[in-house]
Amino acid sequence: MSDAGSELWRGGPAVGRLALGGAPFGGLYESMSGEQVAAVVDTAWTAGVRYFDTAPRYGNGVSETLIGNALRSKPRAELVLSTKVGWQLTDGTPVADFTADGIRRSLDQSLQRLGLDRVDIVYLHDPDEYRAQALDEAYPALRALREEGVVRAIGLGVNWPALPAWFVQRADLDLVLLAGRYTLLDRSAEEELLPLCLERGVAVVAAAVFNSGILADPSPGARFDYRPAAPEVLARAQRLQAICQRFETELPAAALQFPLQHPAVTTVLVGAATPAEITANSYWMNKPVPPTLWAELAAVSALRT
């Protein structure tokens, strides 16, 4: 089972190093049935996963509905669940709304889809073009929800490090969920965001650590950031794989465990569409990696993509 000794955020519950993301449940690459999602969640639970994340934008509410159904049989006190606000579903279409009223409406809608009375964490979801409104209106609404005890923690869920660095300097956040920007192929978060989060006591959840699959299997045709990888990116991933092989370590194991080498990162969140993927991720996360491997990977992983 996955270890459960690290606080997810300062003063928060202890969770393991591996968390489950719900983007695939919303049909990221192909649609999934309720039975398929339940099988993935059950396998993750057996592997010790206790933190689960979803969002209204994942399949226009489908992910929330399916993950809510799958978690209903689990002891609520033993799990941590997060969702996101800032994009409401209007007639099935995501519409940006970072107003205070919009934040509360979005959370209410999410709770209805989840079929639960509360979530533990709420993230502002991709407020890139709405940063001023997110700070002036959405953030105070989340802060009030935290003070009222409606949610336990608040944060920002984003794809690029500059915005959360700006936000952390101006707001009292518990967490930042960052996708794809602290990986063996893209370490841009370590320049400003990670040191800042460490200084301010803001936990970082590292997501998309395979960069859309290329760090799980750097074969020709592999995706990087949801599109076919450029030849130079594929070549870098293959160099990383060759170094891992010299240390008798699989590249996915190094990719999963790499973010946890930074003290600001408290858990790694990955999606899964099948029970086999969860089983593999749990195996890779818990497989010992030679400490000397990180130094060997550093020169290649520090290159700019």
Write up what this structure looks like.
- There is one protein chain.
- The protein is α/β, with parallel strands linked by helices.
- The chain has ten helices and 14 strands.
- Strands 3-4-5-8-9-10-11-14 form an eight-stranded parallel barrel, surrounded by five helices. Strands 1-2 form a two-stranded antiparallel sheet.
- A hairpin with a 2-residue loop joins strand 6 and strand 7 (93-96).
- Helix 1 packs across helix 2 and helix 5 (162-168) runs parallel beside helix 6.
- The protein starts with 5 loop residues before the first strand and ends with a helix.
- The relative contact order is 0.13.
Quick take:
With 305 residues, the protein is an alpha/beta fold.
Task: Explain the layout of strands and helices.
Layout: E1 6-7, E2 14-15, E3 18-21, H1 34-46, E4 51-53, H2 62-71, E5 80-85, E6 87-90, E7 93-96, H3 100-114, E8 121-125, H4 131-147, E9 153-158, H5 162-168, E10 175-179, H6 193-200, E11 203-207, E12 223-224, E13 227-228, H7 231-246, H8 251-257, E14 265-271, H9 275-286, H10 291-301
Helix pairs in contact: 1-2, 1-9, 2-3, 3-4, 5-6, 7-10, 8-9
